[in-house]
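Hi support team,

I submitted a single chain yesterday and got back a structure, but I'm not sure I'm reading the token output correctly. Could someone confirm the output below corresponds to the sequence I sent? I've pasted both exactly as they appear in my results page.

Thanks,
R.
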Amino acid sequence: MNLHLFIPNLFWPDSTFHEIYQDLSLPAIETIFAKSLRTKDESQGVEDWLCKAFSVEKQQDIPVAPLTLLADKARDTETGDGYWLRADPVHLRVEHEQVLLADSRTFSISLEEACQFAEVINKHFAEDDLSPSCGVDNRRKLISLVPLCADRWYLYMQKPPLIQTHLLSETAAKNINEHFPYGTEEMFWKGILNEIQMLLYEHPLNQAREERGDLAINGIWFWGGGVIPKLVTSTYTNVWSNDVFPRSLAMACGANHTELPVNFDSWQQQNKSGRHLVFLDSLHGKFEYGDAYGWRESLKELEKEWFEPVLNMLKKNAINQVTITTINKGVAINFSITKNNLYKFWRMGKPFSTYVN
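Hi R., thanks for writing in. Yes, this is the structure output for that exact sequence:
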């Protein structure tokens, strides 16, 4: 059995914030790191790493939308041969002359609400006067959102738009003015996004949300466009994740896919022989939203629930090899270890923070 733990943001990305590692007791992961073979690869982020792991090539964008559609689509929804964009609901907040974006990790929305918001937007664009004399771009008529999941909406197009987009994950908690779609048609798509913001501003649906203490859904974000990849392959036989993207990649290549167990012991009770990819995302996003305390607590939980039992299983030779991969500042760092590596007594354990660079 081979186990690959993919853990984005295992290190706090701000290397100047040394205090975040103070008084962290992490003997198991420090032992694993000390005995491991360390390698590095370039990576543009979580979605990029996952695509490479499943041999998915980048198109205009990393093709997240057509892949997650495999998991989200309704039974009577045909994916078609066209181009799909994610068009996810977001909350936008003006702060110090910036417009900051917050994704669904910061708010809740029901599928019923999602359908109501999508209906408002779709009706607005469907009612455009598209007569040649009015000068309105006919493509506006094609803006019809499909909310297959509460926080994952889609836009279908017969032809690819002449833009590239920024991943939602790399835009979260950042100024949207620096992350708008770019390319030949950037002004058209920026105009659509701005128009939707104005449409949803103080809409009765958002007034109702704010009255009950929920964040307003006052924008959407286009990202992850593409067509269904012709080839999706992987050496993994099993994928474990609560995130829809790795599950979708597993579906596309025929690998088994299962929700992430609460800890290693629960995982061990369900596992089978083969090559397992386990996506542990509890640290992911903590840095973007400045949650240093949450990051520390999540790391301590990983030490207790995953790293300690993994190390014990290595010592018992119950796992052939363990690889831990994290992404930090555009670099994927891999730590690979077998039981034999544990006998390398000359590799002494060092504080966790020394492995950051």
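A quick pointer for reading it: Confidence is low (pLDDT under 50) at residues 130-136. Let us know if anything else looks off.

Best,
Support desk
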